[in-house]
Amino acid sequence: MVCTLSVEENGFEIHPGFLDNDSINKIIDEIEALDSDFPKHGIRNAEKKLASVKKLVDSNLLRNKAESYLSGNPEVVRVMVFDKTPDKNWLVTWHQDKTISVNDKKAIPGWGPWTLKDGINHVQPNLKVLEDMVTFRIHLDDANESNGCLKVIPKSHSLGILSKNEQDRVVRESEEYTCLAKPGDLLIMRPLLLHSSSKGTTPHHRRIVHIEYSGFKLPQGLTWA
């Protein structure tokens, strides 16, 4: 398996051919079997709604890989499935992923603001928590500029939590990298890496299984949602 770039230096890596075709097809089949009115373009808590995704998230294949990037045992923070289509073709502006989902809401110095999404508590924790996280993006389809693939700013993960003005400045002064991918390819990234995606110019399925792991031990009374 050939890896390009480096999470440590650049904030992201691409691992071609990480997931086999059989696993890919099982996930796609389960997504397509959902009711027609189900919002398939954005499925939060996907491991609770799709058995094939739950099996993947809990597999040694992913947990062993995640463990190599974290300080402790990998814990699942958040799982989502995204799909850009002609009907749901959106723009994501440059940003960092700065929130986690937990089982309860507590007053913790340096944590906040708190929000509620799909019935789950989300919060921005302190920098130490975010630096001990890793995101896996597993591609179920081709991802390229025509269907709105991810773009990143290499090394921006090392700059800490940035304000909107600071993000804009870094983007202006940096060269972006376009993350092209094939079905089964795995993109690994740090949540604080600046990233964005454009609308697809000729949109078609761009299905991604997005999984966030953490090695951080949460304060007493909190567990990952």
TrEMBL record:
GO terms for molecular function: 2-oxoglutarate-dependent dioxygenase activity; iron ion binding. Keywords: Dioxygenase, Oxidoreductase. InterPro entries: Phytyl_CoA_dOase-like. Transmembrane segments: none annotated. It comes from the Bacteria. It holds the Pfam family PhyH. PANTHER family: ECTOINE DIOXYGENASE (PTHR20883:SF48), PHYTANOYL-COA DIOXYGENASE DOMAIN CONTAINING 1 (PTHR20883). This is Phytanoyl-CoA dioxygenase family protein. It comes from Spartinivicinus marinus.
